[in-house]
Amino acid sequence: MGAIDLLASYFGFEEHDTDFTTELVAGITTFLAMSYIIVVNPTVLLPAIMGFNEQGDINQQTTIDGAVYDSNEVFQMLAIATIIASVVAVLVMALYANRPFGLAPGMGLNAFFTFTVVIGMGIPWQTALAAVFVEGIIFIAITAVGARKYVINLFPEPVKFSVGAGIGVFLLFIGLQEMQVVTGDPATLVTLGNVAQNPAAILGLAGLFLTFILWAREMKGAIIAGIVTTAVVGWGLLLTGVASASALAPETLLDERTGEVTFEAVTSPHYDITPLAGAFVEGLRDVDPLTFVLVVFTFFFVDFFDTAGTLIGVAQFGDFLDEDGELPEAEKPLMADAVGTTVGAMVGTSTVTTFVESSTGVEEGGRTGFTALVVGALFALSLVAVPIIAAIPAYASFIALVAVGVIMLQGVLDIDWEDPAWSVSAGLTITIMPLTYSIATGLAAGIIAYPLVKTAMGERRDVRLGQWAIAVALIGYFYVSTSGMLG
Hints:
Elements: H1 3-11, H2 20-34, H3 37-50, E1 61-64, E2 67-70, H4 71-97, E3 103-105, H5 109-120, H6 125-144, H7 147-153, H8 157-178, E4 182-185, E5 189-192, H9 199-216, H10 222-239, H11 245-248, H12 279-283, H13 289-317, H14 331-347, E6 352-354, H15 358-363, H16 369-381, H17 386-390, H18 394-397, H19 399-408, H20 420-436, H21 439-456, H22 465-482
Antiparallel strand pairs: 1-2, 3-6, 4-5
């Protein structure tokens, strides 16, 4: 029996109606869609460790355990920590859960870590890592006893069946912003960007429609082809002098002072991450119990619902849910992010979660843990190939999010729009996600609305006690989080 046959037997290719090539392409697609996190996560976390000077700029040097490190070294440490945490979590997803989902330190959660907890509340970054570590341990414990699966199964049906479409709109919104097609506006919050004056936006849109054309012709690997073609064309225009570096070069490789492309921040990785690894232990000392519990609770709450929403949405998109709208053996993929979060805190990064970009691989046909295994292998290889990953510009890599976002809108067909409880819960879930830039908040809006509307319809007996409990808990959380109690 050959290696491919062994893989097919272990992951159950035949059972899941897939094959080696399909899973391989799906894994590569998911990785390309989420590989930006290798560069973006260190960028978001860097201010937490370096701090700011009086001019509001990030300090260029900091002292950790008596040794002085510059911002470039800390950036590299954070990139390595991001990769390690991602690899560990994805391996659990692949080998234990056998699901095609990718994991990495979550966007939004890393910003909360830096700007709310460390900078806003003045909590040392070591203590923030300790809070993430405790959160991870709690997740492992409640996942092991099935509590997380139980709570997720309490989510109302209209919420479960609308999460996929909600994530689709959210992906669309994120992707179009990163491609600079949608931009900020002081009067209307968002508006159409100056596309005709923006080479990156023009190239991104061209690549997007190329992707749609290839997908419509049922070409396998259409999303990868769109991303790679767009990136190659962009670099070709850049290197031939047709476009300037400021117009088409990835921001992560652009020196703002000289306007030239530089790989200084991502070449020659600083593999010694001991200044970050184990820093959470120091963070457990001399903490204010009340503040620490509040931070842990917030990390826990947001991550719980963010992960739950992503899992349900991508699972619905991949037809993994059963007739009751539940994900069989949900505790296994949930364990992957719990372990990833714990290990991530130990090596020096923020909360690990399942990525919505996993839907790109699922769209390419990924159905088993081998897709995730490919993602993990590519993350590991990226330890020596960070410059190549950083060289994929946002206007190319985010094509995947827009394309899949459009495709995921088909999830609205599963919603009973004539039932008020379904239409209100589903409508809020779908729209609140992009409007608040949060999967967790959109999910919560639908969960809160469901028992209220059901009761108003005279169908209070159809609402389970656990659904009321979750709704009340969410209302309490949003009161705390929006009242200024978090600083």
